[in-house]
Design brief:
The complex is a heterodimer. Chain A is an alpha+beta fold. Helix content of chain A is 36%, strand content 25%. In chain A, strand 23 and strand 24 form a beta hairpin. In chain A, helix 3 packs across helix 4, helix 3 runs antiparallel to helix 5 and helix 12 packs across helix 17. Chain A starts with a helix and ends in a 6-residue tail after the last helix. By secondary structure, chain B is an all-alpha fold. Chain B is 71% helix and 0% strand. The chains are: A alpha+beta, B mainly alpha. Chains A and B meet through strand 3, strand 10 and helix 9 of A and helix 1 and helix 2 of B.
Chain lengths: 553, 78
């Protein structure tokens, strides 16, 4: 080979290298200058990710700090069926790890028309981890918070529930949703090709939800639920409700309904059973309402406890005949005997002296016809006829608790006012939020101390020698009133077989610490409040008095 | 110059490792918080009065406690 040929080949090689270098330079220029922005964005999208940091939902505690509703971490398992190569094997793996039926999971995983399907929401984190450890392509996992109700049935209808998205859907979970939820945070991370976080480049902290402390006491609540279940079973009743309240503060210690349910299984419970009927449902109170008429008459100066009335067994009011529960001859009764013997004729006679306007005023002063303001969603205001809609016979039934519908919580608030020497305190379930101070409850005077004391004395006689003797608790003086009310039959009249038996009272009578209401819907075998509801009152009171170490008066 | 470049690279690598460690610790903290919450939930469920009462009556066959009797003692003068 000559030197000339060799030089030519070297020049050709140099030219070739120069051409390749020029192409590479142009390409680099193109990528650096023209495509720089687009490629930069692509790289950022691949390396950076903004992820939500969900807030922790606040815990609900009872008054002693026992958890009633807590958040626990769960893992949600999802899948992209288009990425799953062997749906049958994947379904078998799901069955082995999560315990779900492979027959049910397979069609979901085999459906390639969808790019995202849930395999299980809020699965057990340990089980989900065992599926994750199998490294099956197409499955994805993320953490979620699951709401647990460790006390199960206790307080379920009060607490309500939070759904799978951790949003309050009923009860206190709904009422306090904003407080419990907190705000979501987010952080932007840079990750390596394996998805591991290299750096957190931006972080917006959220805030966890606040903890809530209730006035409920889980032990009293559990006991009340047990007593209600036994009472309902014994009398084959449709349902039963009870409330225990501290009259000095308006704090509700227990509020229960039977039949109840396990709050962890709320989705399996019929909507009808989930209601807190003590707040949302109304009933005709019957004789327990008579304290409104008597208090109004005493306060207005129309009667005194010793004012005497000559009362026949039956009186005519417009087109309606009003009579007492038990046949008797004409008798002379004092005002306090009228209440302790629960004389319908006596109460209506006093009501006629008070007049329609007077009765209506007292109904509203005791808070009937409007919500009590309890911190619970869906409170009913009850049904109170406006005076312009009263007929001639209304004065013969409303004063004795017929033709008027109230909620158990309205009724216990009214008795709370008598127990609290005439001052009504708004019933409430939330004691405090977070570490804050407990807010001062709303108070208002309904009757004078003198009137409240007089009514309280009359209510003591009901339990000592009247219709409420079954409510007695050894060692304690009880004040209370029985109620037996026929239910409306839906045709403008009253049923002759369906009744609500109730008892409301407070203990110790001299310095009341507890107001307790028990209402039993449609008991069978016996219908009387003094027979059906009063023993349940006594059992609840007996437990609560010992538990709270309340000495006898 | 080469030493400076090597130093900068080493510094970046160290920062990256520290960041990864911080993230790992964050994850560990989240896991511990999760475990604590789950244990707290289990503890509450285990200590629930209803459950204890059920165990006491069904397993140990215990009955309800008798009611408290109060004795009123009146002070007599000397």
């Amino acid at each position: 080979m000559t030197a000339r040929v060799a030089n030519r080949r070297i020049r050709l090689l140099i030219a070739l290298f120069a051409a390749v270098f020029a192409v590479a330079l142009l390409r680099a220029g193109w990528l650096q200058a023209v495509r720089a922005q687009a490629l930069g964005n692509l790289a950022t999208n691949q390396h950076r990710e903004t992820i939500d940091v969900p807030p922790h939902r606040g815990t609900i505690y009872d008054r002693l700090g026992v958890e009633l509703a807590v958040g626990s971490r769960a893992t949600t398992v999802y899948a992209n069926p288009r990425q799953i190569q062997d749906p049958r094997a994947a379904a078998m793996a799901v069955e082995q790890t999560l315990g779900l039926s492979a027959d049910k999971v397979y069609p979901v995983l085999a459906d390639r028309s969808r790019g995202f399907v849930y395999v299980e929401r809020q699965a057990d984190p340990g089980l989900a981890q065992s599926l994750q450890d199998k490294h099956i392509q197409g499955f994805g996992f993320y953490d979620e918070e699951r709401r647990d109700y460790p006390q199960k049935r206790i307080g379920a209808s009060v607490l309500g529930y939070a759904g799978v998205d951790n949003k309050g859907l009923a009860g206190l979970e709904l009422e306090l949703d904003k407080t419990l939820t907190g705000t979501q945070g987010e952080k932007t991370i840079v990750k390596d090709p394996f998805g591991r976080t290299l750096q957190v480049v931006d972080s917006k902290p959220g805030s966890d939800g606040k903890n809530v402390y209730l006035t409920l006491d889980h032990s009293i609540q559990g006991q009340v639920e047990r007593v209600l279940a036994e009472t309902r079973e014994r009398w084959a009743a449709k349902s039963a409700s009870a409330i225990v309240m501290d009259p000095r503060t308006g704090g509700i210690l227990a509020i229960a309904n039977d039949p109840g349910y396990d709050a962890n299984k709320f989705s399996q419970v019929p909507q009808d059973r989930q209601r807190n009927r003590a707040v949302t449902d109304t009933y005709e109170p019957g004789s327990t309402f008579k304290i409104v008429t008597i208090s109004g008459a005493l306060e207005s100066g129309i009667v005194t406890p010793s004012t005497k009335f000559t009362l026949p067994y039956e009186i005519q009011v417009a087109d309606r005949k009003i009579h007492d529960a038990e046949p008797r001859g004409t008798q002379t009764m004092t005002t306090d005997q009228i209440l302790s013997r629960s004389s319908n004729v006596g109460v209506v006679t006093i009501a006629q002296e008070l007049g329609e306007t007077g009765i209506n005023d007292w109904i509203h002063r005791f808070g009937f016809g409007r919500p009590t303001g309890i911190d619970y969603p869906g409170e009913s205001k009850g049904i109170v006829l406006p005076p312009e809609k009263w007929s001639g016979s209304t004065i013969g039934n409303v004063p004795i608790g017929q033709g008027i519908a109230v909620t158990p919580v309205q009724m216990i608030a009214a008795y709370g006012a008598i127990a609290n020497r005439g001052v009504m305190i708004e019933p409430h379930l939330v004691d405090r939020i977070g570490n804050g101070e407990a807010p001062e409850p709303v108070r208002r005077r309904v009757v004078t101390t003198k009137t409240a004391d007089e009514v309280r004395h009359m209510l003591r006689e009901v339990v000592e020698e009247g219709s409420g003797t079954a409510a007695q608790v050894p060692g304690y003086r009880i004040a209370g009133k029985t109620g037996t009310a026929a239910k409306p039959d839906g045709a403008g009249g009253y049923s002759t077989s369906a009744y609500v038996a109730s008892f409301v009272g407070f203990v110790p009578a001299k310095h009341p610490r507890l107001v307790i209401l028990v209402a039993v819907d449609e008991p069978r075998g016996a219908i009387w409040g003094g027979v059906v509801a009063a023993p349940a009152f006594a059992e609840i009171a007996n437990f609560a008095l010992q538990y709270l170490e309340i000495p006898p008066d | 110059m080469a030493a400076l470049l090597a130093g900068i690279v080493a510094l970046n690598v160290a920062a990256l490792r520290l960041n990864m460690r911080v993230e790992q610790l964050d994850n560990q903290r989240d896991e511990l918080v999760t475990k604590r919450e789950n244990i707290q939930s289990q503890l509450s469920a285990t200590a629930a009065a209803g459950r204890i009462e059920e165990l006491a009556t069904k397993t140990l066959h215990l009955g309800a406690p008798a009611s408290t009797t109060y004795l009123e003692l009146k002070h007599r003068g000397p």
